[in-house]
Amino acid sequence: MLAVNGGTGTPQQTASATAAAQTFAPSRSEEWTRGRAEGLKVQVRSKLLKAKSGSSAADMVMLVDTLERLGIDNHFRHEIAAMLHRVHREQQGCTAGSDDDDDLHITSLHKGSFRASLSSDTRGLLSLYNAAHMAMPGEEALDDAIAFARHHLRSIQGKLRSPMAEQVSRALDIPLPRAPRRLETVRYIAEYEHEPAFDGVALELAKLDFELVRSLHLRELKALTLWWKDMYNSVKLSYARNRIVETYFWTCGIYHEEEYSRARIIFTKVFGLMSLMNDTYDAHATLEECHKLNKAIQRWDKSAVSILPEYLHVFYIKLLNNFDELEDCLEPTEKYRMSYAKTGYRQLSEYYLREAQWSSDKYTPSFAEHLDLSAMSSGFPQLAPVVLLGVRDGDGAATAEAFGWAAAVPALVRASAELARFLNDTASYKTGKSGRDMASTVECYMAERGVGGEEAVAAVAAMAESAWRTINRECVEMDRALLPAARLVVNLTRMLEVIYLGGRDGYTAGADIKDLLLVNLTSTMEVVYLGGKDGYTFGSGLKGVIADLLVDPVHED
Fold it and tell me: Which residues does the UniProt record annotate as the domain Terpene synthase N-terminal (predicted)?
């Protein structure tokens, strides 16, 4: 399963947000902060209206990009839509040789030729590198663009100054189109004042908005930590990974905005329940117990607890009770959604059982046979509808049609599932896996092609890149009405790049992403007014609290 699969290892204690959330004490009230933010929104909105009528297409695109990277674009959706509509209309009449095309490097992207002058233009190289990662299948010319930009960015990386140095470093790790928005926001806020087109009003709004959202995240994490502590201590499955903070961190990468609070709570809980099931199949249960667990899950009735070994009784009852409680969180017209979550959980159990059988039989399938099963057991096809489960209908993401689309495992979801499997298996291969795991895609490729591990890892990495291109194509070609749902699913996919960066498994080995958790949940944001006479700081004291709680005695050196 994505993020809850890939080697259980020794259970590790994770961060408790309770103490951290209690430590959080902003020196200004939330009411004051919200009032100030609303006033700043009026000023930014006015600037957007002026830009729409008097700026060039290139300037408008840069402005939209800035708002997105600052994490405040959600407050100006109508204004941004109007600006992009104008840009689209103007670009339809543009010729390929216009100055704006040169500024945006559109000519290079379309023709596959890269001017010598671009090699010394760091900002242009970075734009080219990021834009080329929006390639779709068949656009091989963009492979040359990526290679060209990557080569020159690496050659000058050691000579760059802040903030360009940090932006290039991040892009070389994870290209901007694949980077989770929330993580980019916390870094870009710190860098934005050094940008040529720096706007103090937008920056202050971004800092205020970040802190308001972070305060809500800490309250949610406190509640989820208490829920998980009760769950984990009650089920007494000591072999299972204790990963509620890492799970919530992943969830915030899907949707961080305040309006998605219910969705975050529901998704995190379902993810946690899937993780407990995965670890039972993968790390502890005998094959006979796996069959019994699957039989009980397919029945989905408390009377089926008698089928199970005693150590799974509490888990099974808690599982059913929690799904009932999640359904109670939904409005009467939304309750049909729970059927998608239950069906997905049952399906995942079936896939885990098949994997357990393969492992027991020491069966090494063909690469294609393996991927047919392991893409589905990655958990991604089951989590895609769960992403929408708690989303309110206001933005058009959680429609009945969207649930049907997500549950049918369309090409976008299938490609994301394959990407999850490729990244997970690469991490498992690089870090070593428990003896109970079945053969990975890397090992199946090695056996089938008769190649070594390094060559197999490179081949699987190329398949992961191909999966991203399929995702890009589907986002362009799909029904526009499904785009709001698709964006959330792609956000779930983006978090894979962070969790598995460099071959790590940041879910199983939580200490590997400790710094990212600290940045996302405890970054101090100092907000200084334009006159420079007033300011305040949020979040002091949190870093030490969470850092201490995140220390992993098993994996820390």
Answer: 23-109, 111-172
pTM, entire model:
0.86
Over the stretch 445-455, which tens digit does the pLDDT of each residue have?
Answer: 999 999 999 99
Residue 97 domain-assigned (yes or no): yes
| The amino acid at 310 | E
**Within 13 Å of residue 538, how many CA atoms lie on the same side as its CB?**
24
- Helix H, strand E, coil C: the string for 476-538 is HHCCHHHHHHHHHHHHHHHHHHHHCHHHCCCCCCHHHHHHHHHHHHHCCCEEECCCCCCEEEC
Q: Please state the φ and ψ torsions of residue 95, each to the nearest 5 degrees.
A: -95, 155
Q: Which element (helix H / strand E) includes 432?
A: none
How many CB atoms sit inside 10 A of residue 556's CB? 9
In a domain, 290, yes or no: yes
Contact between 109 and 142 under an 8 Å Cβ cutoff? The reply is yes
Torsion angles phi and psi, residue 29, rounded to 5: -70, 155
Cis peptide, bond prior to residue 163, ω within 30 of zero: yes
User: Residue 321: beta bridge partners?
Assistant: none
For residue 150, is it within any domain? Answer: yes
Q: Tell me the pLDDT tens digit for each residue of 139-156.
A: 988 999 999 999 999 999
| DSSP characters over 35-74 | HHHHHHHHHHHHHHHHHHHHS-HHHHHHHHHHHHHHT-GG
CA atoms within 13 A on the CB side of 514: 20
DSSP bridge pairs for 527: 536
Confidence of residue 527 (pLDDT cuts 50, 70, 90): very low
| Contact (CB, 8 A) for 252 and 264 | yes
Residue span of the structural domain in which 428 resides: 1-9+26-540
Q: How far apart, in whole angstroms, are the C-alpha atoms of residue 387 and residue 492?
A: 8
- Degrees to nearest 5, angle at CA 160 with 527 and 67: 40
Q: Rounded to a whole number, what is the distance in angstroms from the first to the last CA of the chain? A: 28
Question: Rounded to whole angstroms, how far apart are CA atoms 435 and 456?
Answer: 20
Q: How many domains does the chain have?
A: 1
DSSP line for 92-121: HT--TTSHHHHHHTHHHHHH----GGGGG-
Helix (H) or strand (E) holding 146: helix 141-156
User: Residue 275: which CATH number?
Assistant: 1.10.600.10
Within a domain: residue 546?
no
Distances in whole angstroms, Cα of residue 242 to Cα of each of 201, 218, 434, 508, 516: 42, 18, 18, 9, 18
Going by the DSSP 8-state scheme, the letter that residue 161 receives in this structure is P
DSSP 6: S
DSSP H helices, 362-410, are 367-377, 380-389, 400-407
Q: What percent of the chain has pLDDT over 90?
A: 67
List pLDDT tens digits, range 435-477: 456 788 999 999 999 999 999 999 999 999 999 999 999 999 9
Contact indicator for 88, 64 with CB cutoff of 8 Å: no
